[in-house]
Amino acid sequence: MNTNTTPDINPKANVVVSWTGGKDGCLSCYQAISDGFNVTHLLNFRDTKKNGSHKINQELLFAQMQAIGIPSMQTDFISYEQEFKNVVQELNDKGAAIEGAVFGHIQTHDGLVKRMCADQGVTLIMPLWKRDSEQIISDLVEAGFETIIISVKAALLGKEWLGRTIDNKFVSDLQRFNRAIDPCGEDGEFHTFVIDGPLFRNRLKIVDSEKTLQDGYWRMNVSRFEVEDK
Length: 230
Fold this sequence. Notes:
Structural class: alpha/beta
Order of helices and strands: EHEHEHEHEHEHEEE
Low-confidence stretches: 1-7
Radius of gyration: 17 Å
Strand order of the largest sheet: 3-2-1-4-5
Mean pLDDT: 91
Shape: globular
Number of helices: 6
Helix content: 25-40%
């Protein structure tokens, strides 16, 4: 797996990771650490203007970041671009010496993150950029991450997919159902949440949840969860 970065960045540089709790950011963080980067913070940004299709219980997301153990920051934003710059600047003002930022993008939004990083003087790192979606899923499973589906586009997938674990059969099951759906949900077909894996000190267990239809998406709204020792 190749990291999209510039040749002159320090291989042990301090970096931050853009974090939503899903598989792409988690796998990108894992790859960045494997490549030798020092991940100083996980950065989660919450849009105050709308409920995104991957929005989840904030207590669950906080518990996930705590289970990983990397310092984290959760920030509301009106402008994602401006808030990202503000947070990186704040960290560097406090001596964090951030040199790079890791994103889990695969096919889209590269223009935005390139601009954000360039304006802030940090190196953009995108370990999954332009990689094959099936291979990404294979890498995710092989690395040992336990990932579930937490929302699906109702026009494409039914609520029975909510809570489904992404395992070795996931891609073949998805292709049998509808071959047009990208295995990584890159076109917004579904969103994920990681509950365990090699980065985790503790595992999360979903205890209670409700399946609801909102804004064209079936959502798995988690109301109760537990943190388990490993």
